[in-house]
Write a structure and sequence with these properties.
single chain, 6-stranded mixed beta sheet, 472 residues, Rossmann fold
Length: 472
Amino acid sequence: MVKRAHRHDDDTQACKLFVLDTNVLMHDPTSLFRFEEHDVFVPIMTLEELDANKKGMSEVARNARQASRTMDEIVSTCPDGIEAGIPLKGPSHDLATGKLYLQTEAITTQLPAALPTAKADNQILAVVMHLSERFPGRPVILVSKDINMRIKARAVGLHTQDYFNDKVLEDTDLLYTGWRELAADFWDLHGKGMESWKEDGHTYYRISGPQAPDMLVNEFLAQDGENPLQVRVKEKNGASVLLETLVDYAHTKNSVWGITARNREQNFALNLLMNPEIDFVTLLGQAGTGKTLLTLAAGLTQVLETKRYSEIIMTRVTVPVGEDIGFLPGTEEEKMAPWMGALEDNLDVLNGTAGEGGDWGRAATRDLIRSRIKIKSLNFMRGRTFINKFLIIDEAQNLTPKQMKTLVTRAGPGTKVVCLGNIAQIDTPYLTEGSSGLTFVVDRFKGWAHSGHITLQRGERSRLADHAADVL
C-alpha cells in the first residue's frame, strides 16, 4: 500500500518514481498497476532477469511470463515511442494513473568500488542512483522483496521499501483467532431481553448488546467460572446475534474416531470439522496442537461411519513448492509418500484407538483406511472438480494467495475443504506471514456463514515437546 502523495496539476514533483526489482514482478505480475498515481520505472536489467527466469513450469516462471505479457500489452498502447513514459490509466482500467518508464538509454553511474558491476542487483542500484541524480526534487524509491538488496540500497544512500500491496495484514497478531473470551460482566450487559430455547439437543440464546455488532458468524465465545459456557455465533441480525451451545467433544461419549478434545480450542475445531453446514475450515497452530489428527479423525468418521463424504483427499505443499516430483520413483501416490510422514504418524495414533481384533484387526483397519485416503500433488490440481470429498490442504502457509484460490475453487458440491498450517513456519521464498495464502483466506472468509476458523494455542504432543517449544 503506497502512501498517497498529494499531487497538484502544476506540481508533478510530489509524484514518486518507483523503480521495480525483478522479484516484485515475479511475485505479483500485476504490481505495475499497484502504485496509484505514482510513476513506475523498469530497468533493462529487470527485463533481462525476467527473460532468464521465464522457462519452466514453476510459479515463478509462470509469473515472469505473465509480467512480460502485461508489459507487452502496456507498451503496445503507445505506438509513438516510449521515452516520455506510457500512461497506465488505460491498460490498468483506472487502477493506476501514473506512467510506466522503461530504461531506454545506457546508464553509466559510478558505483562504489566494492560493488561489482557484473551483478544484476548492482546494475539496478546504479539505475536508481542515476535517477536520483537526474530528478533531485523527486522521491526515487527502489521497491524490492529482497532484504539484502534493500540493505545494499540503504548502504549507498538510496530510498527503498518492500512491496506491501500483497500483504493482507501489517501485523499477524491482528489475525482473526476464531474465538473470544467473554468478560465476567458479559451477561449483565447482554442479558436484558434475552430469548432462550432448546431444540435438537442444543440450547439457543438470542442476545443484543454493545458487543453483539462486533461478533462474526461462526465465531466461538467462551466463559470460564462456576457455569462454564461455550457457544457459537450461529446467525447475526443487525444488532442481535443467535448463540448455539456446542457439542462437547471432550466427553468420551462424543469421541470422534476414538479422539476426544483435550482443550477448549480443540473442542471448537471439532465442532467446525463435524458440522455439515460448514464447507471451509482453517486451522492455524504451532507444531503439536493437533491440527492434522483432529482433521483426519473427523474425516474418517464422516467417510467411513456416516458416509457423508466419499473419500479423503490430502494434499501437501511439497517444498520446494510445486516443483517437479518426477525424480522420485513410482506413481503420483508413491512419489508423494516421503512428504506424507505426518499422515502416517497420525494414522498410527488413530489406528491404535480402534483396538479391536488384535494385530490382524489393526492391519485390516489400516488397509481400509488407506483405501479411503488419496494423496494428491498440488501440481495436478488445475481444472479438477472434487465432488463429495473431504479435502485437506496441509502446510497451507506455503501457498501464495493465487495458489490458494486455485485450490479452494476446486471444491464441487458436497465437498468440505480444510486448510491446516502454521504461519510461523514459511519455507517459500518471498512469502511472509502477512502475505501467505493461509493468512489471506483466514482474513477474507471470516464472518461467512459456511466457513470457520480456529487458532489452536496449546501443544498436546507430550510434556517433552511442550517444554522444548517453550525453552528452545
